[in-house]
Design goal:
2 domains, Aspartate Aminotransferase, domain 1, three-stranded antiparallel β-sheet, 15% strand, seven-stranded mixed β-sheet, alpha/beta, Aspartate Aminotransferase, domain 2, binds pyridoxal-5'-phosphate
Length: 366
């Protein structure tokens, strides 16, 4: 038996072939073709946000929005280390310094009570992460950002389709980045997007993804190549049609996990958040003083052909590539360090069989 931690959702082969068949008429494979532009429009309407700029992946979407906001180079950006490498790398690769804020122990997003003490005269922005699809405290973050005149970019790689008080996660801060990687609740194979309100960012974000080319005779920015191609966009158009179904199936899996694992001593689940419509992206479990450690559970599952993931371990502020960074070091983020040692995300995808959820839970509980 083999159960992977995730399994990409795909349309039927017939639906995908039908979606891509007109590419054989147009011979237009990339560079903002019809599928690409159609997906941007559909996402604007689905997410109820004025602007969506598509990218070839979420990481380059994040790098490009950091660049597009014209913040003072060398400035400090407050973020959390309890995230995928991408968040911290994007900050460093665009010429900024990451300053690591701890997370809160309830939903593992940025601890908003600890942001202000990290603000200096060099701080230019906050990049909070809606980790596992849990929404950050967007209201408090907005108050801090406006008091100190800081930009806010949400790493919302996990939070596509999540709403807070009925408002899409695409609508908070100066911009929101999504990942449409194969493992996400909505995928375009590889892919990503920046969502935003400001009209004056459209041109820049769109030029930056195409080498900064403004027109046939002018290159206005030192951009790279971050364009989404037509086959990726076609996958997105198909998957978007089935998004509600995807969420419903994931919901059933999560409810079953909850039923089996709730109220067990030493097993901590994330509580559903008030006012949040979730997307059931991940199922993190913290093993804290349970009869087995996180690493033992990981091993037991692995020996039985089940792939759980130590997500997020290690913390980005302990990566060897950041050993020279003054702000690095897990001692500065003790809650994140504690959770990273104890958390495991269990297999979760739309077609995960309830019987398999039972097998996983039996192994954990036995
Ligand atoms: C929190 C977070 N940020 C950024 C990314 C980068 O997205 P992508 O893989 O689409 O480049 C990911 C991807 O998994 C992620 O989990």
């Amino acid at each position: 038996m083999r159960i992977n931690v995730t399994r990409s959702s795909m349309p039927t082969i017939e639906e995908y072939v039908s979606e891509i068949s007109d590419i054989w008429d147009s011979h237009w494979l990339t560079n903002m073709g019809e599928k690409h532009n159609a997906l941007e429009k559909e996402l604007e309407s689905f997410l109820n946000v004025p602007h969506v700029s598509l990218y070839t992946n979420g990481h380059l979407a994040l790098e490009n929005i950091i660049t597009a906001l014209d913040m003072k180079k060398g400035g400090e950006i407050i973020t959390t280390p309890f995230t995928f490498a991408s968040t911290t790398h994007a900050i460093v690769r665009t010429g900024f310094s990451p300053i690591f804020c701890d997370i809160n122990p309830e939903n593992y997003t940025i601890d908003v009570e600890k942001i202000e003490e990290l603000i200096t005269d060099k701080t230019v922005a906050i990049i909070p992460v809606h980790v596992y699809g849990n929404m950050c405290d967007v209201e408090k973050i907005e108050r801090i950002a406006s008091a100190y005149n800081l930009k806010v970019i949400y790493d919302s790689a996990h939070a596509f389709g999540v709403k807070y008080k009925g408002v899409s996660s695409a609508c908070f801060g100066d911009a929101t980045m999504y990942s449409f990687h194969a493992t996400k609740v909505f995928n375009t194979i590889e892919g990503g997007a920046v969502c935003y309100h400001q009209d004056n960012l459209v041109r820049k974000l769109n030029d930056l993804r195409d080498f900064g080319i403004r027109s046939e005779e002018d290159v206005g920015y030192i951009g790279g190549n971050a364009k989404m191609n037509e086959f990726q966009a076609a996958m997105g158009l198909c998957n978007l049609r089935h998004f509600n179904e995807e969420i419903e199936k994931r919901r059933n899996v999560v409810l079953h996990y909850r039923e089996r694992l709730r109220e067990r001593i030493g097993i901590k689940l994330c509580n559903p958040q008030e006012d949040v419509e979730p997307n059931y992206a991940y199922f993190p479990v913290v093993f804290d003083k349970y009869k087995y450690s996180r690493d033992e559970i990981y091993r037991i599952l692995k020996e039985n052909g089940i792939g759980a993931r130590k997500y997020f371990y290690p913390l980005t502020n302990s990566f060897s590539c950041y050993s020279d960074l003054k702000s690095a070091g897990i001692e500065k983020t003790p809650i994140a360090a504690y959770i990273a040692e104890k958390v495991l995300t269990l297999p979760l995808y739309a077609d995960l069989n309830i019987k398999d959820v039972d097998i996983i839970c039996d192994l954990i509980l036995s």
